[in-house]
Amino acid sequence: MLTIAPEVDALARFGRALADPIRCRILLALHENPAHPADLADSLGISRTRLSNHLACLRDCGLVVAVPVGRRSRYELADSRLAHALDDLRTAVLAVETDKSCPEAEDKDCC
What we know:
The chain is mainly α and 111 residues long. It has a single domain, classed as Arc Repressor Mutant, subunit A (Orthogonal Bundle). Helices cover 57% and strands 11% of the residues. The protein is built from 5 helices and 2 strands. The protein has a two-stranded antiparallel ribbon with strand order 1-2. Strand 1 (64-69) and strand 2 (72-77) form a beta hairpin. The mean pLDDT is 86.
């Protein structure tokens, strides 16, 4: 049986999470500030149901956490190092080629 190194598994989960534009937008929004789901859905202009599905994916990938605040939950990046990784990825991709885009994948499976 083939075993996958923990580092490879972590990078694959991160890659799958970043493969969807909505999840990228969520991560970038949470990079700026933690947010409650309703506020996040409104600011991103997506339904709460759709946001909930994407947040579940990001939680399962280990990239975001839900922090209880009274009767509500606030979402934030799971680790401050993810903010640095997002910054590095964003600037590296922009520095390499600003006129390129990838066709969207038809596969919407998540983590």
